[in-house]
Description:
Helices cover 35% and strands 21% of the residues. By secondary structure, the protein is an alpha+beta fold. Among the domains are: 241-357, Sandwich (Immunoglobulin-like), CATH 2.60.40; 426-548, Macroglobulin (MG2) domain (Immunoglobulin-like, Sandwich), CATH 2.60.40; 603-703, Sandwich (Immunoglobulin-like); 715-917, Glycogen Phosphorylase B (Rossmann fold, 3-Layer(aba) Sandwich); 943-1116, Glycogen Phosphorylase B (Rossmann fold), CATH 3.40.50. Helix 4 runs antiparallel to helix 5 (207-254), helix 6 packs antiparallel against helix 7 (550-600) and helix 11 packs across helix 12.
Amino acid sequence: xxxxxxxxxxxxxxxxxxxxxxxxxxxxxxxxxxxxxxxxxxxxxxxxxxxxxxxxxxxxxxxxxxxxxxxxxxxxxxxxxxxxxxxxxxxxxxxxxxxxxxxxxxxxxxxxxxxxxxxxxxxxxxxxxxxxxxxxxxxxxxxxxxxxxxxxxxxxxxxxxxxxxxxxxxxxxxxxxxxxxxxxxxxxxxxxxxxxxxxxxxxxxxxxxxxxxxxxxxxxxxxxxxxxxxxxxxxxxxxxxxxxxxxxxxxxxxxxxxxxxxxxxxxxxxxxxxxxxxxxxxxxxxxxxxxxxxxxxxxxxxxxxxxxxxxxxxxxxxxxxxxxxxxxxxxxxxxxxxxxxxxxxxxxxxxxxxxxxxxxxxxxxxxxxxxxxxxxxxxxxxxxxxxxxxxxxxxxxxxxxxxxxxxxxxxxxxxxxxxxxxxxxxxxxxxxxxxxxxxxxxxxxxxxxxxxxxxxxxxxxxxxxxxxxxxxxxxxxxxxxxxxxxxxxxxxxxxxxxxxxxxxxxxxxxxxxxxxxxxxxxxxxxxxxxxxxxxxxxxxxxxxxxxxxxxxxxxxxxxxxxxxxxxxxxxxxxxxxxxxxxxxxxxxxxxxxxxxxxxxxxxxxxxxxxxxxxxxxxxxxxxxxxxxxxxxxxxxxxxxxxxxxxxxxxxxxxxxxxxxxxxxxxxxxxxxxxxxxxxxxxxxxxxxxxxxxxxxxxxxxxxxxxxxxxxxxxxxxxxxxxxxxxxxxxxxxxxxxxxxxxxxxxxxxxxxxxxxxxxxxxxxxxxxxxxxxxxxxxxxxxxxxxxxxxxxxxxxxxxxxxxxxxxxxxxxxxxxxxxxxxxxxxxxxxxxxxxxxxxxxxxxxxxxxxxxxxxxxxxxxxxxxxxxxxxxxxxxxxxxxxxxxxxxxxxxxxxxxxxxxxxxxxxxxxxxxxxxxxxxxxxxxxxxxxxxxxxxxxxxxxxxxxxxxxxxxxxxxxxxxxxxxxxxxxxxxxxxxxxxxxxxxxxxxxxxxxxxxxxxxxxxxxxxxxxxxxxxxxxxxxxxxxxxxxxxxxxxxxxxxxxxxxxxxxxxxxxxxxxxxxxxxxxxxxxxxxxxxxxxxxxxxxxxxxxxxxxxxxxxxxxxxxxxxxxxxxxxxxxxxxxxxxxxxxxxx
Length: 1133
């Protein structure tokens, strides 16, 4: 039986279905069978049978109840769903109905009932709801009574009867019933087969099964009763809810409030209903009202829902919104779906949420979500790159395969043409000189090859040999046999002798796949013969009459060539790939060691545990005040923040540092947020300040790894008159290029502005092209652009010809030329709309940038920029340097020691607060012994001994030096005064005449030779009077050569004496790496050289280990680039 029950809902309640479980099969009874059913009820009264009660739309068509005050369909508010009955799950439904997906117009919980279903909705007062409940109760009681009657009937029948062969028999007693009293028409919905009609069947039911079924029926009925009570409770709750909402609506309307929510206390992870009084809103005349909002200051789960008019008195509209568990605040506005808004007078509406996250916890949650998203994106990007690389590899392999096939075809065509020409000349005999027997033969046949010794240059030879091959010597020498004399009388005939077992056959085996046999005769075997008969350098050739089919041969030959080319390419590419991977690994390991060294470089003052700071972790900061301005202070306070002091949470509260267990150190613990990329801190003597240690204005900074935020890139522009390798005179050009590359590798943007000299090495400029022109200083300035060493370079070319002089320096008007360039460069930045963070100018030649910027451009479009000025050599352009020192925001020179050496100079002394010494570096890609094409054997620290030995041999040969196992000392440098150049020439002549095989003096620059010198030398001597930085000693160590230097400038900062500087090296995180001396005289040089050479002779193994050690030290721009970035950031503070 299927009974349809339409449950009447109170206002705003969605129609629900009550589905008690049916046990047993009871087909719908037709009118013609009603008497049979009644008869069964009388004879077999039953109990405990449960029916399936399904509320469906069909029922409303069969059994309509007339209701008063019926509202039109869809008149109930769509934003509210009544509380679900106890025991049912609402979480999933609520989440789905909430409409979390942005762009949803109407929440599911507020949707109208589907068109093919009919819902009776009532509008009325409290009595209507009670009447509705009572009517429903009467309906349910009738249904239960009817079900109970049918259940009793079936239970009796099952317990007392067995159906068998069309008769009903009681257990232990015969009984029969007419067939028409047990015939029931069934329904497929209740599992009956053949339309559920039971005809002429006997029923036999086991008593135990009957008891189990009866118990199950009883439990089902109890469940139905429980559900019925829950539904009654729900209706009562809905009644209370309705009353509370009506009271709230009346109160808010009377106070002029146009908005309220229910429940009034909004909790996370629950549903609320938002009510708006349209008549009090700016949307009073709008037919459509929507709510648009999000949570937590508009940062989480945006939504848009349509409001529906409610039953409440007044013009109240409402919708339902699900508040997510992460919410602490709900932000929203109302609008008409187009351009009319009610946004609370531009302040937006908001509701505070209880029980969710607070703002800080939510932000951390967002960071974790962002972190997971970034990890996912990184994996997707890695996979995309992998697939792209795989596709590129396949395409490259395809192109290479086609190229190899083309090369194989070309080679075959060449060979085929040559062989065909030979075949035309080939024969089976020649002019009483040689002949073959038999005349017809093929590959692998044995033939006799006769040679008339008296016919040629071997007439006097005592021994004769044949050196042969085939197919134009394709496989080289493949036939080597000794000839024996024949008994023929018509000449001095000899033939090849090859033995097989005990029988002598005077024959030659014809090679397989041979078209032509090639040979010469000689007076001995290969490597021993001195006289040949090679047919006047034409060799001898005999065709093979029955050789392999020609076309088949050439197809096979082409395939063999193709396979050979493929294998050669594979091996070549594997070698290149392995070398590239090793190079990348060495660079990465070196960079990692340098970063660690950078972090430990201040360990005597400050360090962290762990050393590698990870976002989201807790770290301990250790500080030693005895080495700072806070020495002797009774208290030390930690003051810090993150991300260059720009973190959203601002500075951390001052924290009093506690004594640590390691001597004078004090410590503080810091929680690192997930969005940190840099730790920033200073130290003070009091909580409220007092004396500070802020690292001379730079502050202390430690990079943070693994965060979701990345440091915003800076834009740095170098304005310089030199740049390697296109316009290089000295070290300035190397610094500009190498520093720019290193900073760019750290994900910052770098541009260079350079004069367009007519002597530029444009072959090193990629994609050089004219870009634009502008006028300044009474002349047109053409702007060119190109890429140099991966860097963007803008070339300025004044059309007045100032840089068409054929040189970089040396003109009488150099000051005027470079002044024009500096002014033109700043004008270019302004007119092009550039807004760099840092403008970096170098030495006297581009120093005018500093004051021109401050006087003319700082207040006219370039206010964001800061100027950094670097002194490369104080000996030139002192006036310009002094003025640039005064105007720049930060100033540097090329080594810490040189900065101290010149700190007393009046040009510098008054600006020491902004003056820093940062060591230069070398470019590890230019100076790389593992990839250097100018040396005979590439090497790393692992095979430094073998590599340097090969380079020394090549250098000795190149310079004409004696080849001996002696220490090789090289002095590299330049004369500080051109007037003494002749003295060096005279010295060179003297050395060459008196020590021709032991000494050489080369007075020229030779790029390949310089690489070979660095690799082949045992020692590099740098006895400089002064040296601001020095690159010679750094390059020497890169190639495993040991530096012997005078203690001045940058030489002091890079070469640590193996006997005297162990502690100094340790403070820098290094080991001793060379020899140095103090005096600028022969005695000082002798002292250092004697110790170095003695070490070479007395401890070769130790010396070799020192070479390996210096190769593994990093003198690249890895660390200087980090120091310059610190300086750039401090300039922007």
